[in-house]
């Protein structure tokens, strides 16, 4: 399953984001380090189910064509400057990052918390200061791991004729780095052909490239409903992926939907009031929420999750079935499974994802749209529905 880490300084709204995305019970408070241990929960991608395009009736896995596909969300302890040295809860935070495929960096766009997460007046802190420090802390953490015994291990590679990318991948294996990522990072740099001569600057350049590949990051500019226009404008000018959102608004909407006050699906740009006995305070609150999501085209939270998976990680969703005519499994359930796969996933790749034995015994696939056979090297497209035929 895809794992996404929620990172950032304390009190930036990570736990509110997590609770809104997962509807899990977590502590939320207006002071630093509310989250001590990492929270793990299930959030979802929002996609259009392929039953719509194929005009298939009887799909029980979507809501009028809107389908939600699970991903793991990890809300880790807040990060403060010098966390890589063990300050604050840095060691715990950085350790939890090793299992994440990507990072959503939650930034307090309102400027209402200082660099360590302490409350200040709205607009008193520059949120752009928060954007760069997280990357620096991660880079310094990885650098510290890479530098351990660097001279010894780099010389060993030369003596034993071991490729340097393998040496580095072994050293950074605990961070989730693999040999392919190291090799790609090295291709983009000119560090020279003598690794044992690389100093701190060269290793830091390498670490930055590895981090961009191994831990792609999206900026979630949170609390935009109370953020000064100047902060929003400056965040819009950043040369990186930024989504503007209000996790508090999303949490309010999902809570109201769970109690049948409104009809709302995550990612909707509007909602319908279904409750009949509402107080004046509730009506005013819903009116304010309605105005916000109409202006912002949604709360932004669902967009964050979707953009991480589809844009940063370059994934897509495909559907394996057992009956290509009914697009169902053996029990008649229509499109029961949706798999998140790499953009250039082949039919055989999907077979292995379904089950190792199915991959090993793979014979061919059948495209449910065309009813044509496809071979093992056939590259699937987003939303494809495929029957896998294998030796039993």
Number of H/I helices = 14
* Strand runs, count: 14
The residue ranges in which pLDDT falls below 50 over 5 or more consecutive positions are 31-36
Q: Could you report the average pLDDT, rounded to the nearest whole number?
A: 90
CATH class of the largest domain: Alpha Beta
Give the helix/strand class. Answer: alpha/beta
CATH arch. level architecture of the largest domain: 3-Layer(aba) Sandwich
Overall shape: flat
Task: Return the domain count.
Answer: 3
Determine the fraction of residues in helical runs and give it as a percent range.
25-40%
SSE pattern, N- to C-terminal = EHEHEEHEHHHHHEHEHEEHHEEHHEEE
Task: Report on the architecture of this protein.
By secondary structure, the chain is of the alpha/beta class. The protein folds into 3 domains: 3-128 and 216-308, P-loop containing nucleotide triphosphate hydrolases (Rossmann fold, 3-Layer(aba) Sandwich), CATH 3.40.50; 140-212, Helicase, Ruva Protein, domain 3 (Orthogonal Bundle), CATH 1.10.8; 316-390, Beta-grasp domain (Ubiquitin-like (UB roll), Roll), CATH 3.10.20.30. Helix content is 37%, strand content 18%. The strands form 3 sheets. Strands 1, 2, 3, 4, 5, 6 and 7 form a 7-stranded mixed beta sheet that branches. It has a 5-stranded mixed beta sheet with strand order 11-10-14-12-13. The chain has a two-stranded antiparallel sheet with strand order 8-9. Strand 3 (62-63) and strand 4 form a beta hairpin. Helix 4 crosses helix 8, helix 6 (164-171) crosses helix 7 (179-187) and helix 7 (179-187) crosses helix 8. The longest helix is centred in the middle third of the chain and has 20 residues, at 128-147.
């Amino acid at each position: 399953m895809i794992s996404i880490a929620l990172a950032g300084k304390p009190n930036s709204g990570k736990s509110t984001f997590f609770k809104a995305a997962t509807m899990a019970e977590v502590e939320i408070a207006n002071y630093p380090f509310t989250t001590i241990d990492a929270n793990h929960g299930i959030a979802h991608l929002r996609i259009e189910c392929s039953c719509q395009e194929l005009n298939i009736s009887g799909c029980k896995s979507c809501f009028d064509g809107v389908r939600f596909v699970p991903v793991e969300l990890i809300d880790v302890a807040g990060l403060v400057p010098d966390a890589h040295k063990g300050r604050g809860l840095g060691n715990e935070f950085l350790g939890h990052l090793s299992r994440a495929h990507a990072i959503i960096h939650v930034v307090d766009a309102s400027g209402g918390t200082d660099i360590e997460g302490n409350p200040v007046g709205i607009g008193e802190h520059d949120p752009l200061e928060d954007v760069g420090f997280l990357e620096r802390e991660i880079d310094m953490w990885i650098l510290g791991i890479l530098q351990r015994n660097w001279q010894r291990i780099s010389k060993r590679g030369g003596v034993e004729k071991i490729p340097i990318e393998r040496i580095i991948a072994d050293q950074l294996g605990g961070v989730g780095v693999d040999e392919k990522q190291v090799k790609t990072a090295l291709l983009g740099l000119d560090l020279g052909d003598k690794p044992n001569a690389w100093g701190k600057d060269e290793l830091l350049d390498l670490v930055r490239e590895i981090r961009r590949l191994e831990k792609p990051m999206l900026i979630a500019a949170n609390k935009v409903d109370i953020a000064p226009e100047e902060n929003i404008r400056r965040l819009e000018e950043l040369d990186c992926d930024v989504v503007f959102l209000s996790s508090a608004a999303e949490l309010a909407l999902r809570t109201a939907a769970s109690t049948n006050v409104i009809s709302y699906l995550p990612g909707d740009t509007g909602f319908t009031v279904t409750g009949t006995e509402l107080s004046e305070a509730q009506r005013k609150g819903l009116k304010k929420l309605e105005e916000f999501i109409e202006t912002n085209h949604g709360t932004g939270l669902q967009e964050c999750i979707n953009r991480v998976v589809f844009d940063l990680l370059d994934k897509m969703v495909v559907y394996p079935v057992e009956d290509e005519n009914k697009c169902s499994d053996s029990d008649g359930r229509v499109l029961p499974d949706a798999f998140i796969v790499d953009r250039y996933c082949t039919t055989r790749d999907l077979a292995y994802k379904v089950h190792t034995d199915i991959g090993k015994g793979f014979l061919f696939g059948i495209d449910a749209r065309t009813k044509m056979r496809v071979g093992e090297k056939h590259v699937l497209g987003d939303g494809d529905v495929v029957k896998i035929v294998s030796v039993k």
